[in-house]
Amino acid sequence: MRVAGYELTNEGGEMQFQGRVWKFGDDVDTDVIIPARYLLTIDAKELAEHVMEDIDPEFPQKVQIGDIIVGGKNFGCGSSREHAPMAIKGAGVSVVIAESYARIFYRNSINIGLPLVECPEAVADAETGDILEVDTTEGFVVNTRTGQTYSAKPHAPYVQEIVNAGGLMEAVTARVRQRAAEQAKAGA
Description:
Blueprint: E1 2-3, E2 6-7, E3 16-23, H1 30-33, H2 44-48, H3 59-62, E4 68-71, H4 83-90, E5 95-98, H5 103-112, E6 116-118, H6 120-125, E7 131-135, E8 140-143, E9 149-151, H7 157-165, H8 168-187
Parallel strand pairs: 3-4, 4-5, 5-6
Antiparallel strand pairs: 1-2, 3-7, 7-8, 8-9
Helix pairs in contact: 7-8
């Protein structure tokens, strides 16, 4: 199935992506992901016009829907702003793979439905331009250039539910609707 222009398989809660790599280093902070001078909006598409421009000025014009960001250690460190994952998601990035994440960035990303994967081995071998296949449910990454498959930490079921729904608010709304339907059916 294609969602937001990229390949997504979401059968039985599984999320699988395939995309081109944009590789960045360690300690990519939220001020680099989306510079503070653009924080006057919460519109993801407007933020996407400036995503990563302080580290790669051409990135906002070059990134394509379905691409994958690969980062090193402590990706998303810095401030707690939700604008950073919103800008990445708004640019059409399908998933971010890193060696590790700043905890608040990780939580903010899950809350808006941006899939994240921790996989140090895939990060070490990936190069900008590689094509990766990613399964966030089973927890693996395949580099099509090298043919290597890497084990990644899969999402916990409740986290996968939030990401599948498109974010925390969407997941809560779906649960409320499901419970209301069940209660209506039981009372009928």
